[in-house]
Each structure stands twice: as C-alpha cells, then as structure tokens.
Amino acid sequence: MYCCRVCGLRNIHLDYSKDVIMPSLFEYSEDNFIFETCWSDFSHVNSTFDKALITKWSALQDENKYFKYKLHIDDSKILPGKFKYLAQLNVARGTQRRKPINVQSMKQMFDPTVFNFTKMDEGEILFQVWNIHRKDKNNYLAINVSPIGFGHSLLVPSLYDCLPQVMTENSLLTAIELFLLSKSPALRMGFNGLCANASVNHLHYHLYYLEEKMMLETINVEHLAGPCHMLLSFPSKGFAFQLSKGQNIPIFVRDVYKLVNLLQESEIPHNVTVTRGSGFQEQNPGESRNHVRVYVWARKPTGPDRDIFKFVGPALCELFGHLMIKTQEKFDSVTEDYVNDVLTDQTEETFQSVLEKVKHLYEE
Questions:
Q1: Closest listed residue to residue 73, CA positions, set 325, 301, 295, 311
Q2: N or C: lower Cβ tally within 10 Å for the chain?
Q3: Which of 152, 202, 204, 291 is catalytic?
Q4: Is 202 an annotated catalytic residue?
Q5: pLDDT tens by residue, the chain, 364 residues
C-alpha cells in the first residue's frame, strides 16, 4: 500500500555540500503500478502519487520562494502540417533559468564545486521515493526551479552518491516505477544525456504533465530485433520499446538499458522520453493509453554553444514533438519545415550509424 509520512532530518555530514535531507517519504510497491489510463477521464482521476505530487508542487509554486519564476505559458499552438508539433512560448525560461553547464565530453566527471543537486535548498524537495521491496535509499523527487510545464519535477536517484549524468540500470528502473504510479496519460518523463542538452552533470530525470495528445503516443513503429523497434515515420529517427501490463518490469528496463549503455560506451549522445501510449500493434486506440512507450534517440552532440539552433534546441521534449520556445519572435516564425530539418539533422545520420550495432545487440 501507499504510505506518505514525514521523517525527521538526519544529521549526516557530506563532503560535497550539506546534511542529508530527509523530507516526506513516499513509499510504494508493485501493487500500486497503473497501466489503465485514458484521455477521456484524465482531468478528474488522479492516483495517490499524482495527488501528492500536484499538491506539493502547486503549494511551492504558490509560495513563490524556490522557483526562478512562476510557470506561465505565454502562448501555445499546434504547428500546421503533418507532424502536429506543439509549440509553447515560455519567455521566463529563456531569461531567468540557471545557466546550463558547459559539457565538453560524455566522460565528464561529477564536479562538487559547481551546481549539483546536493546544493539545492531543502525546500525544493517534494519527497523521497522508496520501493518497499527494494528500499533503495536517497531517491528524491524535487521541483525543477525553471519549469517548462505543470508539475515539472526532477527525479534524482541516489542523490548523495553524486553520480554524473550517465544513466544506470537501477536509476532507469526507479524512473519507470515512478512513472507507473501515475494514472494520468499527460505525464511525460525523460533523460537528457551529457552532450545531449543536459543542463546539470548530476544523475537526474525530468517529469511533467503535458495535457495535449501527442503524435508519438500512437505513431506506427517498425520492428528491428527482439524488443527493439524503430521510429522511422517521424523526423527524429530513433528506437522504441513498449511495456505492457503483465510484462516483467526489470527485464523490460534491462532491454532498454542495453541500448542506452551501448550508446554510453560508444560515447554517442542520447535522449530518452517516456510516455503513455497505445500498443505498437494496436489499431484505432481511441482515448485509451494502456502501454508505456520509451523512445531512445542517438543524436549529434551539443557543443559549448547551445544556441546554434535559431528556434529549437533539441532535447527530450523537442525530439518528442514538444517545442519550448523562448522569444515571441521565434514563436511567431517557427514552421514545421524548419523543425523537420532540425530534428532530421540531429538524428538521421547518427541513427543510421548505429542501426546495425543495435540490431546485432538484440539478435544475440
């Protein structure tokens, strides 16, 4: 069963920052995982996890003490064309967010002297998350102080291990489990790797609610090998996996992580997006979203100049079709053709370069 209780602070000193934070503890088990979601009732049906996240996040937003700005989407539109990109204007994020790190290499080590999540204020923590059967310690959910959407939070697994922004299998398992605690088809989750628009070199995942149906929830994919499929009918070419009710979740996570680990070992930048979706073979899914889709993109690296893209800097949101734009001029000018060119440029060549390796990985 769920348990959300308040724990006292533990006075354990760390070399890197301050005392270990012990905020509210959100406990869960496999019995709490949810696969049945539907757009027709998402606005009034929330899980215990959704309610806890939304309540605490909204209270901190109203308090207006820790956020860099109060979330306000200045404008929003679906770009005309085939791919139905969602463009949202968020001027505050362009002017008030913390300056991202300068990543030189995918092997860049954790640096305790620059900003990392051990330096965040205790008040930014929503709660600690804990699978009662594994009891992994130090997995925290915190607000993103520069939000792109409602409820935008950060899962920071193994916070005080001070790991660089390199995915681990165990952290991906925690992320997928957390995702399955939500009953909302609007919840999105993802990972920006080093040299792939990660802004902090400390292991973390993003999650936020995007209350708009997206094309990649139901788009057709093609089988490659084993559990791995290919996303070919969208400008951001990538790989896709699906989790269905009754599947072994650790095995599913291991399958996805095999690909991510291949990219990490090959020093190929990558982004990952997790969303509710239809089954890969499902026809006419309607409003139901009863599977979890995981997309993995191998892409070109971002360099020291993260502003090389006139309108869109592709990360986990943009590759998924959600465009965060920071100025009115760019919002007014962006077109589907431009976005197509950017996403294709960032993914096509790298996708083709790893395709045979990935196929061989899952044929073994």
A1: 325
A2: C
A3: 204
A4: no
A5: 444 433 322 222 233 334 444 468 999 999 999 999 999 976 667 899 999 999 999 999 999 899 999 999 999 999 999 999 999 999 988 777 677 777 878 999 999 999 999 999 999 999 999 999 987 778 999 999 999 999 999 999 999 999 999 999 999 999 999 999 999 999 999 999 999 999 999 999 999 999 999 999 999 999 999 999 999 999 999 999 999 999 999 999 999 999 999 999 999 999 999 999 999 989 888 999 999 999 999 999 986 544 434 455 789 999 999 999 989 999 999 999 999 999 999 999 999 999 999 999 999 7
As given in the structure block, the two tokens for residue 218 are 């139901």
Tokens of 276: 């509710």
pTM above 0.90, yes or no: yes
What burial letters (b/e) apply to 109-141, b meaning 16+ CB within 10 Å?
A: ebeeeebbbbebeeebbbbbbbbeeeebeebbb
Taking CA atoms, 312 is separated from 163, 195, 318, 322, in Å, by 29, 16, 7, 10
Looking up tokens 């952290």 gives 171
